[in-house]
Amino acid sequence: MTTWNQEQQKEQKRVDQVIHKLADETDKLLEHLGGKKADVVQIRKNFWSDVTVNLEDADDAIETAASIKQQSELLSEIERSHTSAETRLKTYEKLKSSPYFGRIDFKEDGEKSAEQVYIGIASYYDEPSSTFLVHDWRAPISSLYYDHSLGEADYRAPSGNIEGQLELKRQFMIKNANITGMFDTGEAIGDDLLQHVLGNQANTQMKSIVATIQKEQNAIIRNTTSDLLVVQGAAGCGKTSAALQRVAFLLYRDRETIQSHHVVLFSPNNMFNSYVANVLPELGEENMEQTTFQAYVDHHLGRDYSIETPFEQMEELLSEKGDSKRVEAIKFKASVEFLEAIHRYAETLSKSGIPFLNVKFRDRIVIRSKQISEYFYSLDQKETVPYRMKKTVAWILEELKKIERRERKKPWVEKEIQLLDRNVYTRLYEKLEERNKYGADSFNDLSSEQKVLSAYVTRIAFKSLRESIEQFSFLDVKSLYAKLFQKNKRLIEDVNTWNEICNQTLFNLKQNHLANEDATPLLYVKELLVGFQSNAAVRHVFIDEAQDFSPFQFAFIQRVFPRANLTILGDLNQSIYAHASGETFSMLKNLLNKKNPETITLKRSYRSTKEIVEFTRSLLKDGNEIIPFNRSGDKPVIAAVEREEDHLNEVKDLVGNWLDKGHETIAVICRSAKESKDVYEKLKDNLDVRLMIDEDASFQKGVIVIPSYLAKGIEFDAVAIFDASGYQLERERKLFYTVCTRAMHELTVFYTGKPCPFIEGASENLYEVVQ
Ligand SMILES: Nc1ncnc2c1ncn2[C@@H]1O[C@H](COP(=O)(O)OP(=O)(O)OP(=O)(O)O)[C@@H](O)[C@H]1O
After folding, report:
1. Cα torsion for 451, 453, 458, 464, to the nearest 10°?
2. Which SUPFAM superfamilies match (predicted)?
3. Rounded Cα–Cα distance for residues 771 and 764 (Å)
4. Which backbone phi and psi does 24 adopt, to 5 degrees?
5. Which helix (H) or strand (E) holds 456?
């Protein structure tokens, strides 16, 4: 037997031993859990009988409270240890199938021999031998595995820097407790395993990459020094993957202070949320909070306006209606200059000019906007506007109290009393009887009955008004925003289409419609006046696909999560929305004012084969910096088709071939949802295909037809681009690049009429042409 085989046998023996121990531990835990569960059920059952309830006098009441406290503390202690035992059990279950993926032998300076460190998704400590049989990949010593080749190496431990020699680095593939592959490598992370992993079929959900994290990705995952970490990287270089492993790392490192709900991920759409939802649970962690910026805007403005979604905006721009004037308006409204103009505007409002609305009750004006304005501007101007707004709310509520009292005698109140529900009447009666015990009037006394009922009716009638005042409904947000768009007062000199921008904005506002580009600035200017509703509990915010965030959105997130560190990940070459500034992320440093901002650039792309990356990077003006990972496949195919029927037939045949080859996730990517629907309708009778135009749908295996912008962030085994002749305008270059980079193994681009100018710019030896 060769030494390597012997070595593999030795390793398999160790795997067997570890798994055996894990099985024993699991049994013990199950027994312990059974006992605990019984304890909890017993305590819950006896909770009130074990507690001495005696409320006769003050001393007894104190004793009772103490008794309840003691019981509930006991209960929660048992529940706590039950939960942590359950978590451990889940971890053991995962380790039992694949206990680790790596081993390093590290000889610390001053030690006689090297320590063998096995690395897995969680640590496993063996009490009898007082050793870690598996180290968590996030433990300080595990960073040696990702960061160093053989030879001198060091890592940062809580006690300081530890130096020594890395003598061995071994990677394992272990499935169902069997070693199916094993490689020794001298590099940081050997390419063999990565080749194997990347060659697999795409999954409908993203996988964790802990076994093959690259050194440059590890720098993102383990960064602890920066409050603003910006990651710029090519399509498929692992930005999303690194972000998710970073969440897992932070949850592990700061486990005493941070839980999953202290971390928020902003992603491009809900489908993407479901696509990444499995990574953290796979690593034994709970998912962070996931949201989209649109969800935030809808939550705050959805009741008052019909808001255009980013997808609706995209559809319009991709249709014939999408003119360059609208694009210019969108860019203007997302610009840093507009943001600064809004700040200047808000400053002037501190002295005068805030538009207020009359406060109305039952269609009658009860407080005039002029009175509100006078009150607001009578307050000390040294105080902030949000503080004065809060004082104004308090003042209006006081005024409403007086008005409410006066209303009680009005005829409408009497009418409402007649309509009162019987149950309400009885409840009020009981309340009054209760009060009566203490010498108040009786309900039988007619005048006091009337008083109670009219007070009740008016209180209920004013309730929603009071609540809306607390939400600053007296602020005329529409006029506030509209005032920015005066034809004779250009906010920024070099906007050519200023008059059109003004007309369109004012027209939309009149209809209570908010174009997507107006929603965030309008909300922003409102919040500058009333104060941002912030969440200080959140400690880390991740923004994925950040190239499509406007400066407004960044500024918003910063204010809403004032204590959070930001990790911002994006690729400027994939800026597909018109509001994307196209600027580098360097403006974020000034905009966000965070400590130690750092930028990391990732250049190596892992998703697609070398041939696909070489082709896609040539679609960009400056794509040469993107480095493909060395995994080979077929060259992309450019297929010219003459007629629509031919196009559909060719797509159908191609997809059939791909299915025969074993590809499981296949996408026919169209430009718009409109085109997707059309293509789907024509394909569905001859092909098992699904239409994916709803961003709330979850991503599934099989063949899908999907619009370009929804495919952002996800990947497929094989991609067919439907009619690339549709991508003609320079502003669609990045959209075209984005859709082509979704392919892992195969890419075919069809076109019907005019060739796509971006392909024409690519060198002919990078693709095959099929006529
Ligand atoms: N170190 C790695 N080991 C294994 N697979 C990796 C690694 N890094 C990235 N990948 C794989 O590469 C693919 C692309 O990764 P990911 O989606 O994170 O890239 P991205 O930079 O977010 O891409 P895009 O900008 O195009 O959305 C995924 O399949 C991911 O699993």
Report:
1. 150
2. P-loop containing nucleoside triphosphate hydrolases
3. 14
4. -60, -45
5. helix 446-470
Q: Cα–Cα distance between 83 and 90 in angstroms, integer?
A: 11
| CA 209 to centroid of ligand 1, rounded, Å | 8
- Does the pLDDT of residue 82 top 60, yes or no? no
Question: Bridge partners of 748?
Answer: 637, 720
Which residues partner with 165 through β-bridges?
Answer: 107, 152
Which residues does 641 contact at the CB level (< 8 Å), separation at least 6? 647, 650, 750, 751, 752
Task: Give φ, ψ of 670 to 5 degrees.
Answer: -105, 170
Q: Is the dihedral of CA 328, 331, 337, 342 positive or negative?
A: positive
pLDDT tens track for 159-183 = 889 999 999 999 999 998 999 989 8
CB 286 within 8 A of CB 265: no
Distance of CA 27 to the CA centre of its chain: 38
Place of tokens 């609706």: 312
Supply the DSSP symbol for 211. Answer: G
The amino acid sitting at 536 is: A
Q: Residues 262, 263, 268, 273: is their CA dihedral positive or negative? A: negative
144 alpha carbon to ligand 1 midpoint, in Å? 22
Q: Residue 31 contacts by C-beta under 8 Å, 6 or more apart in sequence?
A: none
- Backbone angles phi and psi of 263, in degrees to 5: -125, 135
702 labeled binding residue: no
Straight-line distance from the first to the last Cα atom of the chain, in angstroms, rounded to the nearest whole number: 55
Length of the chain: 771
Cα torsion at 618, 624, 627, 630 (round to 10°)?
50
pLDDT band at 52 (very low <50, low <70, confident <90, very high): very low
Ligand 1 binding pocket mutation candidate from 218, 240, 542, 620 (most atoms within 8 A of CB): 240
Mean pLDDT of all residues in 661-680: 94
Is there a contact between 290 and 713 (Cβ–Cβ < 8 Å)? no
Q: Name the burial class of residue 204, with classes exposed (0-12), middle (13-18) and buried (19+) by CB atoms within 10 angstroms of its CB.
A: middle
Euclidean distance between CA atoms 174 and 282, whole angstroms:
16
Q: How far is the CA of 197 from the centre of ligand 1 (A)?
A: 11
C-alpha atoms less than 13 angstroms from C-alpha of 679 in its C-beta half-sphere: 31
**Residue 234 marked in a binding site:** yes
pLDDT one-digit tens code per residue, 283-341: 888 899 999 999 988 988 888 899 999 889 888 888 876 677 888 888 889 888 899 99
- For the stretch 458-517, pLDDT in tens is 999 999 999 999 999 999 999 999 999 987 777 777 777 888 899 999 999 999 999 999
Buried b or exposed e, range 484-521, using 16+ CB within 10 angstroms: bbeeeeebeeebeebeebbebbeebbeeeebbbbbbbb
Q: Give the span between the Cα atoms of 244 and 87, in whole angstroms.
A: 20
* Closest ligand 1 atom number to CA of residue 237: 21
**CA distance linking residue 647 with residue 137, whole number of Å:** 49
Shortest-distance atom of ligand 1 to CA 214: 1
Rounded to the nearest angstrom, the distance between the alpha carbon of 736 and the centre of ligand 1 is 19
Binding site annotation covers 239? yes
Question: How many Å apart are CA 708 and CA 615, to the nearest integer?
Answer: 18
What whole-number distance in Å separates Cα of residue 327 and Cα of residue 333? 10
Superfamily of domain 610-769: P-loop containing nucleotide triphosphate hydrolases (3.40.50.300)
pLDDT at 375: 97
Q: Domain boundaries in the chain? A: 3-96, 98-222, 289-350+477-602, 359-437+444-471, 610-769
64 is in an annotated binding site: no
